[in-house]
């Protein structure tokens, strides 16, 4: 199997303040940024739907059906599934579980299956020796946008991992129990957004109708509601685990689920805990706070530059400091960088940078000292000497160096660093995976479904849809935006409001020190600006983007944090130990 973790792909941001195309006329009047209404609990009038049948002939789907205009006719939109019982040996215990694969139809709220939006494919693992009502369930989403959930399953969160190479990429390799699965803590549902996996829009919708920040979150909210109703998980504690862009969509989904409450459940429940928690792995919570294609400070990336330089023995700033102390000092330097950005990097108009203040600054002793500090922390350039120019010291030309430029200038004699993990260099002349728009079809996933679960889809399984990223719409739904125009490309307001709707909501953020796509300090600062520093812990590991086991040296610590997250009553207890984010001014 060829692991290609679906990284957040540095999309062209399409935000505008006049709203977007994600409106949903079937939704109730949004309550965003308003007190949560208290509604009396009433028994729903509808009945519990029967689980989908194990086998129904489905019209074969072609690759063209995953295009922006692709869709299914109503007659071809079916709910199908297959399941098989298994046992895993985990932490000295034999755990029986059922693996299920299939697809369910997501429909607009209040419409049943009469106003279907999309068929959503999923792979689920449910533990069989514990009461279902008390058993947590976690819905898992990958990033991109455009990535399926497949690679978050095998060898990462799911119960199985490969035990040796596969004979080809068309088949799954031999399997063995995954000792790092979180199946002992929670049931797992790996979900494929529209246009990935086997998920497709249903007429009159098109796939691209769900390729936007709010429309994507809405249809996935509706899938979760359908899954909860079909498999009677109304009373289960529910979690969302989102990786990369999945960490951006999760707060939006959380708000939508909490606003809907239990109103769409088809079985009466007194349980008001619609959502128990979120794990955000390598998120870019605020697209506009990053300096790639935005006129803003790159200070949030400076600590990552420092960690990458230290790994390659090119930083002279660490000395005898421990890794975490060094990271904290790098955060402080990143804040210093951002404060200077607004004074001398950008000029009076940030969209048309004025170089004169910067050129005047580096002629002063404090400017020379700052240049030398940039070199000491990042390993780029050299100690300043009179007569230096941008030819021998790139910081002179580009004080606000974005992560992509950093990968090129860090060690040009060796090659370009990988954006997803700055510990490694890309192959010569290769396209960095963060910019790869090639669609991948995972035949091995279909093979796994057939062999391990007995599910045989007639559709190609789209592991990554390269047609999605460049047309993704980050503009907020005008129905939802209200007075919160900062939601354009920013899910922190959704996260803040979700924690208002459910004060007991547990949230944890995970990052890798060497991830240049979603720098860890950027999330720390975004959360601080949102007033969430003492409510949301940010855990940083010696890893890259996605901090999966195959990218992370401190994976045991990551799993310990996940165990504590699921076991603990509140994630706030972890947040108290957050290192200072060093809030950056004028943001």
Description:
- The chain has 587 residues and is an alpha/beta fold.
- It has two domains: 63-288 and 477-575, Rossmann fold (3-Layer(aba) Sandwich), CATH 3.40.50; 293-401, no CATH class.
- It is 27% helix and 14% strand.
- It contains 15 helices and 14 strands.
- The strands form three sheets. Strands 1, 2, 3, 4, 7, 8, 9, 10, 13 and 14 form a ten-stranded mixed sheet that branches.
- A hairpin with an 8-residue loop joins β2 and β3.
- α2 crosses α3, α3 (245-260) runs parallel beside α12 and α4 (302-311) packs across α5.
- The longest helix has 23 residues, at 323-345.
- The protein is globular and about 75 Å long.
CATH hierarchy, class of the largest domain: Alpha Beta
| Largest β sheet strand count, sense and barrel closure | 10 strands, mixed
Known CATH architecture of the largest domain = 3-Layer(aba) Sandwich
Structurally, the number of domains stands at 2
Beta-sheet strand percentage?
Answer: 5-15%
CATH topology of the largest domain: Rossmann fold
Count of individual beta strands: 14
Bin the helical content. Answer: 25-40%
* Class derived from helix and strand content: alpha/beta
User: CATH H level of the largest domain: which superfamily?
Assistant: Alpha/Beta hydrolase fold, catalytic domain
Quaternary structure: single chain
Radius of gyration: 24 Å
Which key phrases capture this entry?
about 25% helix; two-stranded antiparallel ribbon; globular; about 15% strand; Rossmann fold; about 575 residues; ten-stranded mixed β-sheet; alpha/beta; disordered N terminus; 2 domains; single chain; 15 helices; 14 strands
């Amino acid at each position: 199997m060829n692991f290609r973790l679906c990284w957040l792909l540095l999309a062209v941001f399409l935000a505008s303040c006049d709203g977007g195309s994600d409106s949903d006329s079937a939704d109730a009047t949004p309550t965003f940024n308003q007190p949560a209404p208290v509604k009396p609990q009433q028994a729903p009038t509808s009945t519990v739907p029967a689980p989908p049948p194990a086998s129904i002939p489905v019209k074969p789907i072609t690759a063209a059906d995953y295009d922006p205009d692709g869709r299914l006719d109503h007659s071809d939109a079916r709910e199908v599934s297959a399941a098989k019982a298994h046992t895993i040996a985990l932490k000295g215990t034999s755990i029986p579980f059922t693996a299920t694969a299939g697809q369910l139809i997501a429909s607009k709220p209040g419409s049943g299956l009469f106003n279907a939006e999309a068929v959503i494919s999923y792979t689920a693992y449910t533990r069989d020796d514990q009461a279902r009502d008390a058993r947590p369930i976690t819905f898992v989403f990958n990033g991109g946008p455009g990535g399926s959930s497949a690679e978050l399953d095998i060898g990462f969160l799911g119960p199985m991992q490969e035990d040796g190479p596969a004979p080809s990429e068309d088949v799954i390799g031999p399997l063995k129990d995954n000792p790092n699965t979180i199946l002992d803590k929670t049931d797992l549902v790996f979900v494929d957004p529209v246009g990935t996996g086997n998920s497709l829009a249903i007429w009159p919708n098109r796939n691209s109708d769900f390729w936007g920040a709010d429309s994507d979150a809405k249809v996935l909210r509706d899938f979760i509601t359908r899954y909860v109703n079909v498999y009677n998980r109304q009373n289960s504690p529910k979690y969302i685990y989102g990786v990369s862009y999945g960490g951006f969509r999760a707060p939006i989904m959380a708000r939508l689920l909490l606003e809907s409450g239990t109103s769409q459940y088809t079985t009466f429940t007194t349980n008001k805990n619609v959502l128990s928690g979120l794990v955000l792995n390598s998120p870019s919570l605020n697209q506009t706070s990053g300096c790639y294609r935005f006129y803003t400070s790159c200070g949030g990336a400076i600590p990552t530059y420092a960690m990458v330089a230290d790994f390659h023995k090119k930083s002279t700033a660490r000395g005898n400091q421990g890794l975490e102390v060094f990271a904290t000092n790098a955060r402080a330097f990143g804040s210093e960088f951002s404060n200077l950005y607004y004074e001398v990097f950008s000029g009076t108009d940030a969209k048309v940078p004025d170089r004169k203040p910067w050129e005047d600054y580096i002629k002063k002793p404090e400017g020379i000292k700052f240049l030398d500090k940039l070199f000491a922390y990042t390993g780029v350039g050299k100690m300043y000497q009179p007569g230096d120019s941008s030819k021998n010291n790139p910081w002179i030309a580009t004080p606000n160096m974005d992560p992509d430029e950093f990968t090129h200038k860090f060690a040009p004699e060796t090659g370009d660093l990988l954006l997803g993990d700055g510990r490694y260099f890309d192959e010569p002349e290769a396209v960095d995976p963060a910019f790869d728009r090639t669609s991948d079809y995972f035949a091995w996933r279909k093979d796994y479904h057939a062999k391990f679960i007995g599910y045989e889809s007639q559709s190609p399984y789209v592991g990554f849809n390269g047609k999605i990223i460049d047309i993704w719409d980050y503009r907020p739904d005008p129905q939802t935006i209200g007075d919160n125009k900062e939601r354009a490309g920013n899910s922190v307001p959704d996260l803040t409001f979700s924690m208002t709707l459910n004060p007991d909501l547990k949230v944890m953020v995970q990052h890798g020190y060497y991830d240049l796509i979603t720098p860890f300090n950027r999330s720390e600062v975004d959360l601080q600006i949102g007033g969430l520093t003492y409510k949301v812990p940010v855990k940083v590991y010696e890893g890259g983007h996605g901090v999966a086991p195959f990218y992370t040296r401190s994976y045991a610590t990551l799993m310990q944090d996940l165990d504590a997250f699921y076991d603990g009553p509140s994630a706030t207890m972890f947040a108290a130990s957050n290192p200072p984010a060093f809030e950056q001014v004028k943001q």
